[in-house]
């Protein structure tokens, strides 16, 4: 169980499973004598590379229908069997109330869910994000979404993760897309030229004839790990262990009964991301607040996961 060491390197409880492949790619590079890597971080935020940006455009179109027809369309889409739990939840919520649609795309736990789960008082996340999303500027909503992603997701997750995981292996990651001249130029490009029915439209258009077609048309391939498989097997056992272990700080801030309910529901739905967030928080608290060394935490979890003879 190597994850506690990665949480220790991260410093903050950033529950982004992509930290694992970034760490091991950096480790592999260092073993090959490579000390500097180039990364495409920032390209999605400044040129509209995330698929959810297309969904925002679709939702804007659906908004034109208004009222009962809009709700009916969303309710119909939400019943598609291939949709992940999070998207199903968002569509169902929006079929009832569209007021917080922007926030729903950014969260894994709704505010009412956080109230049930947390024993401590928590600030409202929407209140913190809404000034970025709802700026009083004569601009397209997608520009506000790009702006919010740059100010939050990019700097507090993407770049933090890349820096911490690479430096843990004495490797430097450089980000040419975040050259300030390029970022400033990208912010002047109208959103309809960035996101159409495909992502990074104008960026890919600019490289036509310079890059092979198979490169330009290659589907986006983010860093995936078998999170669902892990969170329904060995890593699920870790959460269960931390919930029943006396002295574990998760007991101090989380309602154990609610988390147990989530674990049981997870057997039929994909709650792997929610559970990973709880796992990351639990390990971070044990290391940084309960003052356990990551090696001690690793050994503790290893013993728990090792079948007794």
Architecture overview:
This protein has 309 residues and is mainly α. It has 20 helices and two strands. The protein has helices at residues 3-10, 19-31, 43-47, 51-63, 67-78, 85-94, 101-104, 111-117, 125-133, 141-167, 180-186, 191-194, 201-206, 213-216, 227-231, 234-244, 250-253, 256-265, 272-288, 294-305, and strands at 36-38, 172-174. The longest helix is centred in the middle third of the chain and has 27 residues, at 141-167. The two termini are 19 Å apart.
Defining key terms:
309 residues, mainly alpha, two-stranded parallel sheet
Side by side, the strands of the main sheet go: 1-2
- What class, by secondary structure content? mainly alpha
The portion of residues forming beta strands comes to: under 5%
Q: Total strand count, please?
A: 2
Straight-line distance between termini:
19 Å
Major sheet characteristics: 2 strands, parallel
- Element-level helix/strand string: HHEHHHHHHHHEHHHHHHHHHH
Alpha-carbon Rg, integer: 21 Å
User: Which segments are poorly predicted (pLDDT under 50) over 5 or more consecutive residues?
Assistant: none
Task: Calculate the mean pLDDT score and round it.
Answer: 83
Give the fraction of residues assigned to helices: 55-70%
Principal-axis shape: globular
Number of helices: 20
Could you give a short description of this structure?
Helix content is 61%, strand content 2%. By secondary structure, it is an all-alpha fold. The protein starts with a helix and ends with a helix.
């Amino acid at each position: 169980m190597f994850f506690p060491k990665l949480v220790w390197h991260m410093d903050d409880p950033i529950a982004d499973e992509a930290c694992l492949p970034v760490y091991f790619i950096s480790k592999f590079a260092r073993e090959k004598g490579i000390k500097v890597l180039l990364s495409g971080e920032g390209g999605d935020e400044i040129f509209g590379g995330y698929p959810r940006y297309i969904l925002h455009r679709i939702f804007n179109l659906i908004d034109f229908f208004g009222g009962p027809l809009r709700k009916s369309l969303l309710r119909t889409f939400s019943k598609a069997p291939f949709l992940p739990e999070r998207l199903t939840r968002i569509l169902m919520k929006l079929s009832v109330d569209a007021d917080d649609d922007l926030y729903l795309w950014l969260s894994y736990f709704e505010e009412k869910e956080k109230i049930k789960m947390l024993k401590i008082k928590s600030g409202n996340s929407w209140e913190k994000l809404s000034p970025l999303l709802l700026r009083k500027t004569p601009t397209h909503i997608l520009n506000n979404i790009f702006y919010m992603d740059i100010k939050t997701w990019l700097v507090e997750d993407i770049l933090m993760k890349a820096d911490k995981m690479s430096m843990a292996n004495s490797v430097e990651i450089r980000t040419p897309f975040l050259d300030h001249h390029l970022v400033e130029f990208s912010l002047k490009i109208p959103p309809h030229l960035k996101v159409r029915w495909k992502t990074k439209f104008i960026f890919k258009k600019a490289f036509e004839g310079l890059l092979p077609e198979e490169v330009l048309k290659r589907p986006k391939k983010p860093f995936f790990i078998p999170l669902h498989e892990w969170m329904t097997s060995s890593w699920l056992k870790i959460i269960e262990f931390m919930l029943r272990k006396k002295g574990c700080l998760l007991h101090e801030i989380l309602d154990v009964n609610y988390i147990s309910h989530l674990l049981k529901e997870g057997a039929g739905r994909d709650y792997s991301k929610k559970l990973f967030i709880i796992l990351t928080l639990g390990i971070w608290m044990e290391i940084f607040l309960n003052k356990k060394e990551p090696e001690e935490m690793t050994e503790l979890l290893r013993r728990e996961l090792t079948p007794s003879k």
